Amino acid sequence: MASITRDTHQPPKSPYWIACFSGVGSDGRVRRLKRSTKTTDAKLARKMADEWEALEKLAGEKRLTESHCRKVIAEMYERTIGEPLHFRTAREFLTEWVESKKNETELRAYLKYHQIVHDFLAHVGIKADRLLREITPADIRSWRDALKRKGLSAPTVNHAIKIVRMPFKAAHDAGYIDINPNTKNTVRPLRDEARNVSKDVFAPEQIRTLIKAAPNEDWKGAILCGYYTGLRLRDIADLEWSAVDLGARTITVMTRKTRKDVTVPIHRQFGLWLLKQTRGIGKAPVFPTLAGKAGSGKSGLSMQFKRIMDKAGIRGRLLRDATGAGRSQSSLSFHSLRHSFNAALANAGVGVELRQELTGHLSAEMNKLYTHPDVETLRGAIDMLPGLRP
């Protein structure tokens, strides 16, 4: 039976109670063990002695499990420190992290986090139900390589790795794990062969063809908006009437990517389209059939625009061929309207600083990637861009 005793040295070498309990030695024989409880509280010391003996009994019967040990240690820690000691499994912590994002992010972002985290947990198998600290950089790299083998593009895989990096950083910052297994140095991103390949721009005649092929009025307006404002697809799809000032002929939005406020003058041709629409109040969407739709996926906005391009007979150069679950990448996409906007301004003689302000680019280096010199001289700035014939 467990008991406690004091240090018999005179004077005592330690003020703490010593737990005395029976245990099984390495030779399999039962012997009396002693261990300092590191406490001067007799009641607490007796509790610890009983728990240690119970663990020793389980060990002797070959029934001791990791969960038994974690439970006893956590209870001891909480009694001593006054705060709970958390032994979180990978599944528990990552699932908890995902659920915390439900009220912190938009629904689309939450669903993306949920899908990616659960895909990772499925990949690590039984390690998902082991301690979070048992996840290693090799597990993350193995998942990254598995996604690549499925045929997913490098940007898609790298984005998934970036999302999973967030909960591991949070766990490391909170002290739940000593080593973060998913840092930029331990898990390198995949090289994107198409990243630095020159993208193409739409010619004015192609813009007219795209508008003609558009399935509805919202897509016609979105194409005009992309060409005459340089806004990204998601920013256009979620554009609200509160951002449109027809009196001042400006659109002011905080871009989703950079979180930077951008004010763009409304070109007269896009302005005419806006005037023909039924103006909504406040947060009413300018493009109601596009608002709230996902950008990616088989039925996403990007694929809808690709179908418009196909109908218009417009195809870009193939930059990345589709393999497995991945999809091909063309040198022309809705984002090319943004390149076209910037290139047209450059060809019209608009300086890089003004173009950078209009597009919301954070650096001149980024803006350079969007400059496509053209032999055709455009008429300069927003109001001087060439009009499109009806």
Please give a handful of descriptors for the protein shown.
3-stranded antiparallel β-sheet, 3 domains, hpI Integrase, Chain A, single chain, DNA polymerase, domain 1, 44% helix, 9% strand, 390 residues, mainly alpha
List the helices and strands and how they pair.
Blueprint (H helix, E strand, L loop, with lengths): L2 E3 L12 E7 L5 E7 L5 H19 L5 H16 L8 H11 L6 H18 L12 H13 L4 H20 L30 H10 L3 H13 L3 H5 L6 E2 L4 E5 L6 E5 L2 H8 L25 H12 L5 E3 L8 E2 L4 H13 L4 H8 L4 H6 L21
Antiparallel strand pairs: 1-2, 2-3, 4-5, 5-6, 7-8
Order of helices and strands: EEEHHHHHHHHHEEEHHEEHHH
The CATH level-2 architecture of the largest domain is identified as Orthogonal Bundle
Q: How many beta strands in the DSSP annotation?
A: 8
Percent of residues in beta strands? 5-15%
Largest sheet: 3 strands, antiparallel
Coarse shape: elongated
CATH superfamily of the largest domain: Intergrase catalytic core
Which sequence of strands runs across the widest sheet? Answer: 1-2-3
Query: What is the gyration radius calculated from CA atoms?
Result: 31 Å
CATH topology of the largest domain, which one?
hpI Integrase, Chain A
How would you portray this structure in words?
With 390 residues, the chain is mainly alpha-helical. It has three domains: 3-81, no CATH class; 90-173, DNA polymerase, domain 1 (Orthogonal Bundle); 204-369, Orthogonal Bundle (hpI Integrase, Chain A), CATH 1.10.443. It has helices spanning 42-60, 66-81, 90-100, 107-124, 137-149, 154-173, 204-213, 217-229, 233-237, 268-275, 301-312, 335-347, 352-359, 364-369; strands at residues 3-5, 18-24, 30-36, 244-245, 250-254, 261-265, 318-320, 329-330. The strands form three sheets. The chain has a three-stranded antiparallel β-sheet, with helices on one face. Strands 4-5-6 form a three-stranded antiparallel β-sheet. Strands 7-8 form a two-stranded antiparallel ribbon. α3 packs antiparallel against α4. The chain is elongated. Mean pLDDT is 82; it is low at 366-380.
